[in-house]
Design a protein that fits this description.
Layout (H helix, E strand, L loop, with lengths): L6 E6 L3 H13 L4 E4 L6 H6 L1 H22 L11 H26 L2 E3 L3 E5 L2 E4 L4 E9 L3 E3 L13 H4 L8 E5 L3 H12 L3 E5 L11 H13 L3 E3 L4 E6 L5 E5 L4 E4 L1 E4 L3 E3 L6 H4 L22 E3 L10 H16 L13 E3 L4 E6 L2 H7 L2 E8 L2 H5 L6 E8 L5 E8 L2 H13 L4 H6 L19 E2 L1
Parallel strand pairs: 1-2, 1-6, 2-3, 6-16, 8-9, 8-14, 9-10
Antiparallel strand pairs: 4-5, 5-6, 7-15, 11-12, 12-13, 17-18, 18-21, 19-20, 19-22, 20-21
Helix pairs in contact: 1-4, 1-9, 3-6
The chain binds NADPH dihydro-nicotinamide-adenine-dinucleotide phosphate (NDP).
Length: about 450
């Protein structure tokens, strides 16, 4: 019997969401699947995001560890950082991961096209090779890319994409923005010995996170030597005769840097795919509009991950891709959940967060706030002023813990576990009944006795 379509599923985009959907549909759903990726396999997370970023976080944390080691009696010194050596090792690791992604797809029987794909109609995909194929279902998982506003000198800036390929580390780096990426790279580069300035237009970095936690991270960043200036925007950038970049700010100051990185948000990759002509809804920010099933207004076309601009995190894209494949190809209808998604900002110290902020919770219902800030044992012994913040937001009516915010080394690891309890509906009393693991930082979460505030 002839098949009406070349494939059951055609996925455009080989990032976290697209690869997961393709693999599940093919390996577990028995579907005939193809995937097109115009760049490297693995997408933002693996190639130019979470993975290389986290490895750079590790690299940047050694000087502080070595300084601390000295206070513990070790005779060590950091010496110099060999950026090209690290970068080569990083590139090799990314090659390995890309290979692993390709293997996974091959093992699942997914046919991969290493070219750009666009849509001709709701079931027809055109590849840049000129080949045209058809599919019963099409999944768009094309992700996003950095957004840089246009202003005089905007052509001089780098984005996070460029940070992993720098020929050498700049001596003085300006980072513009106050989100995840700006704040993480400010800490990374500071740790690697670069003189970092971070300019943010608003009153406090990390908008959307708990206010107290934001303030805590900002203070820690300043204490570690980052020149963090809030309420500061750039009017123009100019290349100087010496090859540096002069930045003129809204407060009338001129400062010179060797490099400037903008981390002013990301935009979905929807242009030129042929979506609008087919009737796929595109939102104000360029995102593909989907329902809870990740289905667009065109029934055969679905979209997952950053291109839909719901919660732009790798694990969310993976869940969306998996839920889509389960629903459409495995006969197990389910929607990806978007509530109580924990996340971590890998600043130094890290910020781990799940659930409602104090500010959001108090708009919804009466709450109690439990919080403690203290000098953790390891760095206090070394004489550091670093402080850790542990904070719980509790419903006065149900006693459920509505939110947890941790600023501490390893907060990303801690919040993952707190998120399980909170997702299960743990009350403050459940936390209290849990015996502490001593001596740890996280034990403070189960020993918070009296609220610091009620609202
Ligand atoms: P964010 O949306 O987190 O932050 C963008 C920042 O740029 C904000 O501070 C914003 O200011 C500022 N900004 C926006 N437009 C302008 C402008 N025209 N001029 C000056 N400043 C501007 O984006 P990121 O690029 O940092 O990260 C993108 C997404 O990637 C994140 O939202 C997150 O979902 C994901 N991500 C997650 C990570 C993790 O889980 N650890 C790590 C990295 C990225 P304002 O606040 O005033 O709007």
């Amino acid at each position: 019997m002839s098949q009406p379509f070349d494939y059951d599923l055609f996925v455009i985009g080989g990032g976290s969401g697209g690869v997961r959907a393709a693999r599940i549909a093919a390996a577990e759903g028995g579907a005939r699947v193809a995937l097109a990726e115009e760049d490297r396999m693995g997408g933002t997370c693996v190639i130019r995001g979470c993975v290389p970023k986290k490895l750079m976080v590790f690299a940047s944390s050694y000087p502080a560890m070595l300084r601390e080691a000295v206070t513990y009696g070790w005779q060590v010194s950091a010496g110099g950082f060999d950026w090209p050596a690290f970068r080569s090792k990083l590139e090799a690791e990314l090659d390995r991961l890309e290979g692993a992604y390709r293997n996974t797809l091959a093992k699942a029987g997914v046919e991969v096209f290493n070219v750009r794909a666009t849509l001709d109609d709701p079931h027809t995909v055109r590849l840049t090779t000129g080949q045209v194929v058809t599919a019963r279902t099409i999944l768009i998982a094309t992700g996003g890319r950095p957004f840089v506003p246009e202003f005089p000198g905007s052509d001089l800036v780098m984005t996070s994409n460029d940070m992993f390929h720098l020929p050498e580390l700049p001596k003085r780096l300006l980072i513009v923005g106050g989100g995840y990426i700006a704040s993480e790279f400010a800490c990374i580069m500071n740790g690697l010995g670069v003189r970092v300035s971070q300019f943010y237009r608003g009153a406090q970095i990390l908008r959307g996170f708990d206010d107290e936690a934001r303030g805590h991270v900002a203070n820690a960043m300043r204490m570690k030597g980052i020149d963090l200036r809030t309420g500061t925007s750039i009017i123009r950038l100019q290349r100087t005769p010496e090859g540096t970049i002069r930045a003129t700010t809204t407060d009338g100051h001129d400062c010179e840097f060797d490099a400037v990185m903008y981390a002013t948000g990301r935009v979905p990759n929807t242009e030129g795919l042929g979506l609008e002509a087919l009737g796929v809804g595109i939102g104000r920010r360029g995102q593909i509009e989907v329902d809870g099933w990740s289905q667009t207004a065109v029934p055969s076309i679905f979209a997952v991950g950053d291109v839909t601009d719901r919660i732009n995190l790798t694990p969310v894209a993976i869940r969306e891709g998996h839920a889509f494949a389960d629903t459409v190809f495995r006969g197990v209808p389910r929607q990806a959940e978007h509530d109580l998604v924990a996340s971590a900002v890998f600043t130094q110290p890290e910020l781990g967060s799940v659930g409602l902020t104090e500010e959001a919770a108090r708009e919804i219902e009466p709450i109690e706030v439990y919080a403690t800030a203290f000098r953790p044992m390891q760095s206090a012994f070394a004489g550091d002023e670093d402080r850790v913040l542990m904070k719980l937001i509790v419903s006065r009516a149900t006693r459920r813990v509505l939110g947890c915010h941790i600023v501490a080394p390893g907060a990303g690891e801690m919040i993952q576990l707190a998120a399980i309890a909170i997702r299960m509906g743990a009350t403050k009393e459940d936390f209290d009944r849990t015996v502490a693991v001593h001596p740890t930082m996280a034990e403070e979460l189960v020993t918070l006795r009296t609220p610091v505030r009620k609202a």
